[in-house]
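Forwarding these from the shared drive since the link keeps breaking.
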Amino acid sequence: MEKQERKSRLILLLAFFLTLTAIGLLAGAMSSDEWVYAEIQQLNRSPSPSPESSRAGADEPGYASHGLFKGKFVPPGNILRVQHSVDLTCNASTRICRYDAFDPRDGHLYYVESNSYASINLAEFCEKTSQATGILEHPGEPSFWLWISTVIFLSLAILFALFAAIATLVNVIYVPISDIAGIQGVYVWNAIASLSTLTTLCIWAGMYYSHLRYNILPVIVIGWGGTTCGLAYHGNAVWIILAALLIFILNIAVIRCRRGVSSVRHPGRAIYVKGHAKDGHDTTYY
């Protein structure tokens, strides 16, 4: 194997491992429960305090985080720091997503009246943390369409990244005949994976700025007087997805470097092809 061809394949091998890294990051982000994180503050009004709260810890802030499928929270005033689990339940037939909180004492789902806190006044809900005004409809129900779109495009990003990894490995082993499995295919799969990842981030940003920055809490915690309005920020999973996006862009640049290496010509080197002429004599072309 020639020196330049070896360098070309080593560059492709590097691109292959970078793609595997991006796939791992995207898969980890999908299963993470830290897409959004927020401190929970106690409002002045507290119609029904949490079971673990006490007057001695009334000013103790809580925290909450959740991802695409699950989350957790510790209520404000909870001096025992008892962690509650949360499921983000989405129903395709009703097109509704809902935060379901579970009692850590017995693991049962907290029961909440369906019409409880159908809307909240942001001027009151954000009185200690933000200057937001207006009405937030269904604070315990993030957008179903934004949620399902985020899941779909993140899944597509992982799928096309797998295609990119396979195509890159094929080019490391041998030179494929098909364009879709060749270097052009590696470019295409990486580009589509990066676009799917970027779309995931954009959709998530839409969900964050339309709903999550005001509330990421189940309705039961709102009833306890908790608020996350103005206290939410992007969790680790969002930055992990951004890192995967940068890896896809880096991959395209790395493969571009390989193109420069593979295009080097070797002067003075002839290629001989022996053919068979009609008159029965062998002819050599170079």
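-- next protein --
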Amino acid sequence: MLALIIWEHDRPITGNVINMVNIVTPRKAICEYREGERVSARCKGFGVPDGVIGKIAEESQRKDLEDILRGEEFESLVKKILDSSDDDVDMVTPETPGVENDPQTIEHQPAAATGVEKIKLHRPKPRRPAEERKKNEEMLRKATAAAAAELELTELGRDVELHQLENEASLETSTSSHLKRGLDTLIEEEMEISRTTDQCACTSRIQRLEQEVWHLNQKVLSQESNISWLWNQVQQLQQTRATPVHTAHVSGSGIPPVEMAPPDLVAPNEVPSAVEAPEETNPSNSTEDSATVGGFTDSQLEWKSSHCSTYSKMSAVLFRTLFHEEEYVGRTLAGGGNKPQVDPVKMQAIYRVVAKKFPGSTPVMIREKLRDLVKPCRVKNRRATPQK
């Protein structure tokens, strides 16, 4: 249910459409409220002001009430309500605070034609000084009790704040101690890590030095083998000079022709990585060792490429040793197509010498590594690069 409440104390007089559940006084069933009845109702933003019920309608008639509130009909409704009131406030009103409900102050009048019982209210009697004094003392007592309660609450709040401050101080102290212990632990861990790192660095350096010593020993052994082989060659040369060459061949003494390594096989200040002393020559393989390819025997080619650690490097060294640039420019390694093949005898010598040191290598693998050497772009770059 909705009600149009007229706020008669406003200047100018205004009104609002509110729900009847917002009526504070008098409290009774909604169906018992009547138009023209004085009530106190909650109004948003204004508290609980007093007013008069101007109209009562259903929820569906809210728009009609709002039209009345905005139109001229509201003024006529206000005049009607104000004209019907008199000096004694002849209206259906709630029980007024301060007025006692007894037969001396309330006079019942017969019901009007509307069926509403009208009540005529008289002005309350003035209070006596004793009652006023008692009332003042009661109010003072209540105010004193409220002040004491507020003071107690204030002291309690201060105690709580002091307790919180003490807790915070103890928490900060414990936190600082924990942080100090944590920093000490971190410093100890860093020192331990630095000691461990120094030990690891020393260990790695010792290992590196051991490897260098091992490599130096290998180089010493290689140099000793080289010197031994040269000494054998010198002895064979002395025997050959003592005995004529044609006599040795005719008599079949088995002394092969001396094969001296070319002067450029061992460069100054150059130590080969691996040098193997050649086996003693016997009459059965003297023909194979004496055969030369490009002016080099197999043993000389092995000597030239003895420092190579992979078959690809060894193949490149032998290819550059046996072939000149004009011998492979415009040619292919295996033949086929419109281009001619390079010298197959030299290629077979490369296959044979590489296979002795690296048994797992095949001609196809060797050609794959040598294919880049014969590309026209590589040849062009070598020609453009000045020789040192």
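The beta strands are 2-7, 14-19, 23-25, 38-41, 50-57, 106-108, 119-121. The longest strand covers residues 50-57.

- D.
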